[in-house]
Amino acid sequence: MQAPLSKSALLKSQSYIGGEWVEAKSGKTFPIINPATGEHIVDVADMGADETTLAVEAADKAQKAWQALTAKERATLLRRWNQLILDNQDDLATLMTLEQGKPFAEAKGEVAYGASFIDWFADEARRLYGDVIPTFAKDRRVLTVKQGIGVVAAITPWNFPIAMITRKAGPALAAGCTIVIKPSDETPLCALALAELAHQAGIPAGVLNVVVGQNAKDIGGVLTGHPTVRKLSFTGSTPVGKLLLSQCAQTVKRTSMELGGNAPFIVFDDADLDAAVEGAINSKYRNAGQTCVCANRILVQDGVYDAFAEKLAARVATFKTGNGFEQGVTIGPLINQAAVNKVEELVQGAISQGAKALVGGSKAAEAGAQFFEPTILTDVTDDMAIFSNEIFGPVAPLFRFKTEDEAVAMANNTPFGLASYFYSQNIGRIWRVSEALEYGMVGINEGLISSEVAPFGGVKESGSGREGSKYGIDEYVEVKYLCMGGL
Ligand code: ADP
């Protein structure tokens, strides 16, 4: 299954700036490590502030001509890029499993999901309508046009190394913006492969740039400080998001922030328990629990708590932990040692305060250094650190509640507000709880809710702005008001 990587045209180790592959000025490189095996994959060039400035300048130089293309011309290039991504699904998924660790089948799923944003926004490029507004004065006419905001910066995380890029680059390019992307230094290979495919698709030099480097502070300093960059779209942790927001304030950049979550997954007494178990599996254990929409707190009503725990345990016991290239593996490694330590600390902390490990509970050392056992904890309470921290690992803590009001209060008792989920068969409850949850997204009797057609985003400290859907392109346009007088 694993392709001979050294022969893959998609394996790139330099950054892509102004349509060219460039080395770091310093000559420095850094290694990319396979999280499943600890093996060295390749060394990549380590860019810094100077190269980031060059990328911003290249994006600026390309922007007017890119904006001047017709929407159809931009859409045609985006469609070619989409097709090339799909044509190279296996190679891209191989790179992803190698550098990020998720099971190969899941990696292939992400490639298709990632491509879907480019396909979707290729269509949306042609629907960027303005308005003709009924006038306020007889001698004047009132119109609006939507224009691409200019040069955009994207800073992206490692958990979805392709999709987190395409759902920013798709709408940005569709709207006539050019973009400088800084992927996570844990997973730059997917980002560079996307750049190579954009190049092959004929997307002009400077329209899409990828700058890879270990010094996020320096690269981020240019992307948030350079006056030419008019917008930052960030996906990552809430503390870094807050820092970047403050940096962007100096030049009043537009921002979209997709930050951390602490998703509640509520199972009411009247739920279809089998469906709830499947939903919990999908929402909790995908990508070994390393998504910002993963169920982080499973709240189960008293009457079904034991039955739900038992059914969930039976399913989780069948999981296979290991290298994502192995047949049948459902749980891959965590991204790095720090992630493993954090998950272990949260689990041990809960156990020391009275929680019980119904399944798992420790590192899966036999699979490798960076694996954690798929785990279910029962008797978890809201005074434990695991209630308020994003776990980012394959651990399901089960909390108990008695009433609907108590469940909603527990669910909302967090500064975060990204995804939430609940299972109930009662139509009145479905409306009440949907409206009461302080979240940007609500899965009702469903654990998998992400799609390019739907608006993804959070409220409270989970961020601002929406990605995907008809709303996603609004993040990359300015509405310009034209007042025609003297008529
Ligand atoms: P995660 O926990 O998912 O790695 P981070 O917020 O640390 O989340 O990282 C998300 C992205 O933000 C990564 O590309 C990372 O390199 C980048 N990043 C981290 N710190 C900074 C910073 N100070 N300035 C700019 N980018 C940063």
UniProtKB/TrEMBL annotation:
GO terms for molecular function: succinate-semialdehyde dehydrogenase (NAD+) activity. Belongs to the aldehyde dehydrogenase family. Keywords: Oxidoreductase. GO terms for biological process: gamma-aminobutyric acid catabolic process. It comes from Marinomonas transparens. It comes from the Bacteria. This is NAD-dependent succinate-semialdehyde dehydrogenase. Pfam families: Aldedh (PF00171). Residues 21-481 form the Aldehyde dehydrogenase domain. The active site is at E258.
